[in-house]
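Budget justification aside, the reviewers requested a transparent look at the raw inputs and outputs of the sequence design task funded under Objective 1. We therefore reproduce one unedited record. The lines immediately below are the structure tokens for a 291-residue chain.
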């Protein structure tokens, strides 16, 4: 967030900017009330069975359904599944565990709907943290988990953060987001730092995508390795020498079906070297969003 900005002002600036960007058409984009949690349900043309629950990133503090509208439209069209984008409560107004409580509410609401097929949960950055916690807290409800450069370690203890420091997203900035989200006394709680969970091995097939010049690779890789027992059940995918702009949903656009998110995705050919911007920017179209 630019220095001197307030959270509310910056949120609104980013929201309005995103709403002005071109977006793909979908058959329907409908705002819904999921038992008190604002959500948006995207339906592509001729959808196949299944629902992807999308949890947006933004360092827990920023972004919303409008900011990720373009991302969810692309994800719905590429996967040919319905996408439910969750408007969870954010700090500093609503700190932990408010966001987790909202994520927990969504499966119960989905069970009441007449949407065919099974569910996957998908999130980027801090949204990937919430998606992983949501899957752990709701065992058996999600058929697959998709984590895009997950933001998992409140201590910034992995040496990959040394790369982030040079590009503008080092331990100090990461700590600011965690401090907004939860009290330090809660940083060891598995609902805040899911790598501390003793239930990782019970996750459904899980896909983890990281970027080579992002501070996330070590923690993201650990998220996959910590529960791997059957190598057919999960995959880690690292984008080598990622360009400065990396679409939040691009790593899963080639996954033909959300329930099959655990199948192998081919490693892309190397791209021109460009240091991934350390703020873990999530892209929707050609614009930049904070983690």
């Amino acid at each position: 967030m630019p220095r001197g900005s307030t959270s509310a002002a910056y949120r609104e600036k980013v929201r309005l900017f995103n709403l002005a960007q071109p977006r793909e058409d979908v058959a329907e984009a409908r705002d819904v009330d999921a038992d008190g949690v604002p959500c948006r349900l995207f339906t592509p043309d001729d959808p196949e069975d299944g629902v992807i629950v999308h949890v947006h990133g933004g360092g827990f503090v920023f972004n919303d359904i409008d900011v990720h509208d373009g991302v969810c439209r692309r994800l719905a069209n590429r996967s040919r599944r319905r996408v439910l984008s969750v408007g969870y409560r954010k700090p500093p107004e609503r700190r932990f565990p408010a966001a987790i409580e909202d994520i927990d509410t969504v499966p119960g609401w989905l069970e009441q709907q007449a949407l065919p097929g099974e569910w996957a949960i998908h999130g980027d950055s801090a949204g990937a943290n919430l998606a992983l916690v949501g899957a752990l807290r709701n065992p058996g409800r999600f058929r697959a988990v998709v984590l895009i450069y997950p933001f998992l370690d409140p201590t910034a203890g992995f040496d990959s953060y040394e790369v982030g420091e040079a590009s503008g997203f080092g331990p100090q900035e990461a700590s600011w987001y965690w401090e907004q989200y939860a009290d330090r006394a809660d940083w060891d709680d598995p609902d805040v730092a899911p790598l501390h969970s003793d239930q990782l091995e019970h996750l459904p097939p899980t896909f983890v995508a990281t970027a080579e010049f992002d501070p996330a690779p070590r923690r993201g890789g650990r998220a996959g390795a910590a529960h791997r027992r059957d190598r057919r059940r999960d995959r880690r995918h690292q984008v080598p020498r990622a360009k400065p702009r990396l679409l939040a949903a691009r790593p899963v656009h080639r996954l033909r079906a959300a329930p099959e998110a655990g199948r192998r995705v081919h490693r892309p050919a190397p791209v021109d070297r460009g240091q991934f911007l350390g703020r873990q920017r999530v892209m929707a179209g050609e614009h930049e969003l904070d983690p």
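The chain has seven helices and eleven strands. The chain has a mean pLDDT of 78. Computational costs for records of this kind are itemized in the attached budget.
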